[in-house]
Structures are given as structure tokens and as C-alpha cells.
Design a protein that fits this description.
This protein has 2 domains: 116 residues, no CATH class; 67 residues, no CATH class. A 5-stranded antiparallel β-sheet has the order 3-1-7-13-12. Strands 9-8-11-10 form a 4-stranded antiparallel β-sheet, with no helix packed on it. The chain contains 1 helix and 13 strands. By secondary structure, it is mainly beta. A hairpin with a 2-residue loop joins β8 and β9.
Length: 197
């Protein structure tokens, strides 16, 4: 079995079933044996084939902060120009750190034909900012944490349309500065995994 689950359906193509509908299985359990008897009653050894569907449960957790830091412009602005010829760049003016500046870039490019490297000019405007702590609405934080949990489930191959049941639990973190959302889902999927002989 690829996953833990509760067997709901078995479609046997070749082999001997080792589980029945209603059985609970763990990942790695043998579901269908490759040893079987053919129509003449002769014992055969081969690769098992079939489908074993089971109800499988997944859990994912997402977290989100109830505060965030937003940049507020102070009004101070600095400008830098960068001339480029191919890969050679010549800055004119000082560059400022992005920890306390945002930047806007505008670029103009002049192509001088196929045999010449392109010539470009960049104007970079640095806007000085101070960061201010802003509260996030509880519902907005819950939504962000829920989306993070679902992103985790999607990365594991699940889709919302195949969900049989979804249970959502949320609780505030110990420091009261964030929220944790736990998403438990139930799906029915083929848990069989076959190995060639």
C-alpha cells in the first residue's frame, strides 16, 4: 500500500487479494499477492495486477501572523543611473540598501544592429521607507493560513474536487501573535503500488 487507509473497493485483475473491503491497511502492507491459481488449478507466480481503493486521510498545517511590517515612504528620494553596453555596466550615483529603501526602475534600450552589443540606460529611483507594524484582521490571517495548508496538500498531489470530507481547526499561537490552521481531509484513492518481478 502506498498510504494508510480503509479499503473501500478491490478490483482484482491477477493475483490473490490479501485484504478485504473494510480492512485497515498501513503503508507498505501487501494488498495483492502475485501467487495465484490459474483456470486449471495450477499454482502461478507472476506480477499482481489490480486496483485497491481506500479512504485516506491527510493533514496539513498553515500559519499566518496577526501583524505585518509595511513600508511607509519618508519622502526622501535618491536617483541613480546605470549605463550598460552588453554585459558592462557603469553606475552613475550611489546605490542605497533595500532594507530601508524601495526602488523603481525604468529602462531604455537602443539596439545598434546585430553586430553591436545593445546600449541601455536605467534610471533607478530609491525611495526611503520606515517600516510600521500593522495589525492583520483575524479572518484575513485565517484565510492566509488556510491557503498555506492547502498549498501543502496540493504539493502532495491532492485536489479540492476529490475531497470527501474536510475538517478545519484553528487556534491562536502561544505568543498570541499568529494563528495556526490545521486542515484534515479525507479522499478515496487508489493505494495500490505494484512491483515488477
Amino acid at each position: 500500500a502506498e498510504n494508510d487507509g480503509l479499503v473501500t473497493e478491490i478490483l482484482l485483475l491477477r493475483g490473490t487479494p490479501k485484504v478485504r473491503e473494510g480492512d485497515t491497511v498501513l503503508a507498505g502492507d501487501l494488498l495483492i499477492s502475485g501467487i495465484y491459481y490459474d483456470g486449471k488449478g495450477v499454482k502461478q507466480f507472476g506480477a499482481a495486477q489490480g486496483v485497491v481503493k481506500a479512504r485516506v486521510w491527510y493533514r496539513a498545517v498553515g500559519e499566518a501572523s496577526l501583524t505585518r511590517w509595511e513600508p511607509i515612504q519618508t519622502g526622501n528620494r535618491h536617483r541613480q543611473f546605470v549605463f550598460s553596453l552588453g554585459t558592462l555596466e557603469i553606475p552613475m550615483g550611489k546605490s542605497y540598501p533595500l532594507e530601508n529603501h524601495t526602488r523603481e526602475i525604468k529602462e531604455w534600450t537602443l539596439s545598434l544592429g546585430r553586430s553591436m552589443a545593445p546600449l541601455s540606460l536605467k534610471r533607478i529611483d530609491f525611495h526611503e521607507v520606515q517600516y510600521s507594524r500593522v495589525n492583520v484582521a483575524l479572518e484575513e490571517a485565517k484565510t492566509e493560513a488556510y491557503n498555506t495548508a492547502w498549498e501543502n496538500l496540493t504539493n502532495r498531489g491532492l485536489e479540492k474536487k476529490g475531497i470527501l470530507m474536510e475538517k478545519i481547526e484553528d487556534d491562536l499561537m502561544v505568543d498570541q501573535d499568529g494563528i495556526r490552521v490545521t486542515v484534515n481531509v479525507e479522499v478515496e484513492q487508489d493505494i495500490s503500488r505494484f512491483f515488477s518481478q
